[in-house]
Amino acid sequence: MSQAFDPRVKQVLDGERPAGDLPLALRAEAEAAQRVLAALDRREVSLSPQLDARVMAAVRRRAASPRRRAWRWFTAPSVPPWGLAAAAAAAFVAFLLLFRPASVGSPGAASPLATAAGPESVYVRFVLTAPTAQHVALAGTFNRWDPSATPLTRVGAEGTWMVTVPLTAGQHQYAFVVDGQRWVPDPAAPKVDDGFGRKNSVVSVTPTQGRVL
Amino acid sequence: MNRAFMLLGLTAFTAPALVAQEDVAARLQGRVPPAVAAAVSALIDTARARGLPGTPLVDKALEGAVKGVPAERIVPAVRTVLDQLNASANALHDAGIANPSDQAVEAGAFAIAAGMTVSDVAAIAGTANQGHPAAVALQVAGALAALGVPRPETVGLVRAEIQSGRPLGDLVSLPGQVQAAMAGGALPAAAAAGLERAAAAHQTTPPRGQGKGPVNPHKP
Lengths: 213, 220
What we know:
Chain A is α+β, with helices and mostly antiparallel strands. In chain A, 31% of the residues lie in helices and 25% in strands.
C-alpha cells in the first residue's frame, strides 16, 4: 500500500508537529492517515515459533568463533590516546639506554689506564714493549678474541706498541698477540689462568664510576 | 591504540632478546668446531635456566678456538666457567642477595677463578652496601687476588675498606695502591695488610655483629 501524504501531514504523523497547526484543508487528511495507521498498528503479528531458536543459534555461533573473538580482542581499543605518547616516550628512553654509543674521551697515559668516557664506559690504553715484533694485536673478551680486530701501532723507535679502546663496565680478559702467533699477557696488569694452560691479563671497569682497576 | 599495536610494540621490545639468542649461535658458528658449538650451546641453555649469564661461556669457547686449543679441551674449560658462575651466584644468595646482577655474578666468578673461595665471595658480598655494590667489591677482590694478594688479606682488606665508610673511589683504588707498593718492593700480602690497617683506622661502621651494619639493599 502506498499513499502520498502532504509533508506537513507526515510531520504530524511523525509527532513533529501538532495536528492543530495544520491548515483546515489538511486536517481531514491527517485524521484519515491516523486512522489508517492505527488500524495497521492493531493488526496481529504472528512470529514463527522457531524464531527464538534461530536467533539464539546465530548469537551463539558468532560468539563461539575463537578467530572472531581474537580479532576483536586485538582490535578493541584498550589504551587511551595519551597512552600512545607515553609509549613513544618510553620507547625513546629504552632506545637511548639500549643503543647509546660509547662516549668519546681522550686516551689515558699508561697501560692499562683509562679516562672516563661515560658513566659505564672508559677509554683504556694498552701498551706493550716488543722491540723485535713485526705486528702486535690485542685480543680479548671485548673484541670476541679476534686477533685481527685491534692491531697496535708502533710508536717511537724503542719498540713500544700502543692502542686505545673503549671498554664497557665489567671485567675483560685479554692478551697481546705478537706476530700472529705468540700470546703474551700484559706485564702491567693482573693475570689469571685462562683454563688452557696460559695466562690472561685482566682489566676491570667498575660499573658505577667507570674506573679501571 | 588497540591491542594490535601493543602486540607490535611488545614484539619490538622482545626482539632484541631473541636476536641475542641468535647472536650466540652466530658468534660460535664458523669459529669453533660444530661439536664444540653444540656442547657450548647446551651449557648456555643450562646457564640461562639457572639465571646465569651466558656470555662468559661464549667468550671462553671463542678464546679456546682462537688460541688453537684442541676441541676436547675447550668444552671442559667452558664448563669450568659455568661452575664458577654457579658458585658465584650461590655465594651471592648466601650473602642475602636474592637477585644478583650479571655483573655481580661475573665478578664473583672472576674472583673464584683468581683463587677466592665461595665463602670468601659470600663474606665480601655480605659486607657490600648501597655505596659499595657487591659487583664492584668483588671486582676489586678479584683484581687483588690476581695480583697475588692471599685470600685472607684480600677479604680483610676489602671488608675493612667498605666498613671504613670512605668513598667508593677509595675501594676501587686498592689494586692500584697494591701494585704501586709492589713496584716499590713490597710483597702483595704486606701491601694489603698495610692498607687494611689504614682502612680500619678510618672505620666508622661497626663490624658485623657489633651493631647495625651497613645496609645491603639487595637483602629482603
